[in-house]
Write a structure and sequence with these properties.
With 339 residues, this protein is of the alpha/beta class. Helix content is 38%, strand content 18%. It holds the Pfam family DHHA1.
Length: 339
Amino acid sequence: MQVITTHLNADFDCLASMMAAKILYPQAHMVFPGSTERLVEIFLKEESHSLEFTRIKDIPLDQVRLLVVVDTHTAERIGVFSPLLDNSQVEVHIYDHHPDPQLDFKAGRKIIKKRGATTTILHEVLLEKNMPLTSEECTLMVLGIYQDTHSLVSVSTTPEDLTAAGDLIKRGADLNRVSSYMRQKLNSEQLDIFNGMLSSLENHLINGVEVSLTTASSDHFVRDLAYVVQNVMDLENLSAVFALIRLDKRIYLIARSSIPEVNVAELAQVFGGGGHESAASATIKELTLVQAKEKLLGNLESLVQPLSRIRDIMHAPAIVVDVDEPIQSVEKKLTLYNL
């Protein structure tokens, strides 16, 4: 038996990557390891498509011989399928755009590239094999790329993402449908979290870089927190934001960055999480909100790259020339001081 899966709380990059992988592995069952983001759930209910998913309970794990994992290579993020990674009878294929390609298990195929979305990697594979795509498939793949790259403007966006999106649009992707899923309204529970984050928003200057920190709490689970955090970032025009959100007894870290000086994946790894340089998350189980905030602030200075300063790029002491000095003389001074 062959299975295609992805990470928990699957987003559109996961969905599009699974669909693309299904083209490469037509005999495989597409299986979500757990819940999906609300917008993905709405998409699957509203859109007319030929995607067929198998429920986890209908997959006999002892019969799986090929496991295809997209948009992650972390065992903890694929739920019940994680034990299969260490099963010698199961061949594992990985397609992922997240950094740190060091695997704790043996993979028969491993394609991990620096891209803004895993969908872009699968597009490259399909293009190389000259495999056709329907307009519906192109639309979903553009949606996957757009969501993970924030419409191709995030710091993690690569030229390959732009090329892939352009090719998919040329093949018939419907941008009207894509945009309708990129502009969803917050529900009442999300609005409570949103307002809480706005009221607690703090700005810190770390190594010359402005970094924002915010917190919020709720006594019950709220879905799609990443979407809420992105709304705060867009509204306040933040360059980098770290959100600590308590839901019942657990704390969730969600981080976003649009600048190269702040790699949010590195900070998420401090809390046992992961992601990529512009978007990352972690689940924090054994700290209070106050303790998590203190730990976050304590690690920021070592992880935020300092901005270039005048003294870093200027020659010292300053070399001066007289306003009446001949050009030839100035040229000799420039050569002498290797300027």
